[in-house]
Design brief:
6 helices, 2 domains, binds calcium ion, mainly beta, Pectate Lyase C-like, 14-stranded parallel sheet, 34% strand
Length: 290
């Protein structure tokens, strides 16, 4: 854990900062123990059936997910030069994919979130307790819905020496709720993946992904105004290639095809404990025999 080792008393930190300013200027933009915040948002204007799309700035200060009370949310919050952001990807860029991003107010985030640490970087993305952070491909009336519906919601592509943690977020209406690539090392905790058409969690390559306290439900079931979409294949959690995984205290239900499945290379390297598998066409499958 780097945070404990790096934490220093303020006075000492200031002294070091004074003496070593040239060195600090060469450091990464945000050290691993300097979190940045993501604010929320709300729908509107109007209410109920009249509500359309995400609200834009300005909003009444302190409302509609405006955590810092400046009346700005979304892109305006991304651009105002402070340490709060209105979108998740802007915050990840601010920490240079090395550090902690905390979503501090409830909102819907229609963006393909990319977690891609390099060179030993470590990223944690989480919503604070009680915050509903919905990473959703579909927002009523938004012109980007079709393109987003054909993309994964959270893409994790880390290096072999990098570690990624994602906690307490929802991902819905994508092809894959979460797609993990390469040699990533990932922990997914309190993840809620629903109504993703192809996979809830899709682990590829040689990635290692543990999942705990999570619900992956209704994979392969998604509909728009023209009717239900066709799943391909509609698997809750799929460990593909030579990936490895462990799932603990989680629920995988209502998948169109398999609940938890592994590829030939991943077969035998998947560990399940206290996992609810129910109402999937096939609850558990190996070698893609679903
Ligand atoms: Ca704000
Ligand atoms: Ca800002």
């Amino acid at each position: 854990m780097t945070s404990g080792r790096r934490r220093k008393p303020l006075a000492r930190g200031l002294l070091i900062g004074t003496l070593c300013a040239p060195l600090l200027a060469l450091a990464t933009p945000a050290a691993a123990n300097h979190p940045v915040y993501v604010e929320g948002n709300c729908f509107g204007p109007g209410a109920g059936d009249a509500a359309t799309g995400l609200r834009q700035s300005p909003v009444t200060p302190g409302t509609c997910g405006d955590y810092d009370g400046d009346g700005r949310i979304g892109r305006a919050e991304d651009r105002d030069g402070d340490n709060n952001y209105g979108s998740i990807n802007a915050a990840l860029t601010a920490i240079a994919q090395n550090g902690r991003v905390v979503i501090v107010a409830s909102g819907t985030f229609p963006e393909v979130v990319k977690l891609a640490p390099t060179a030993g970087g470590n990223v944690s993305l989480e919503a604070a307790e009680g915050v509903d952070a919905n990473i959703d491909a579909v927002v009523q009336g938004d012109p980007g819905n079709t393109a987003r519906s054909a993309a994964p919601g959270i893409i994790i592509d880390g290096c072999g020496q990098c570690r990624v943690t994602v906690r307490n977020v929802m991902t819905r209406n994508w092809t894959d709720g979460v797609r993990v690539l390469g040699r990533s090392h990932v922990h997914l905790d309190e993840l809620r993946a629903e109504n993703n058409i192809d996979y809830g969690v899709h682990v590829m390559g040689r990635a290692k992904v543990s999942i705990s306290n999570s619900q992956i439900n209704a994979t392969g079931f998604r509909a728009d105004a023209e009717g239900p979409d066709q799943p391909d294949p509609g698997v809750g959690v799929f460990y593909e290639g030579r990936s490895k995984g462990s799932i603990h205290r989680s629920s995988v239900t209502g998948s169109a095809l398999a609940g938890v499945a592994s590829d030939d290379g991943a077969a035998g390297t998947i560990r399940l404990k206290l996992v609810q598998l129910f109402d999937n066409s096939t609850n558990f499958a190996t070698s893609q025999r679903w």
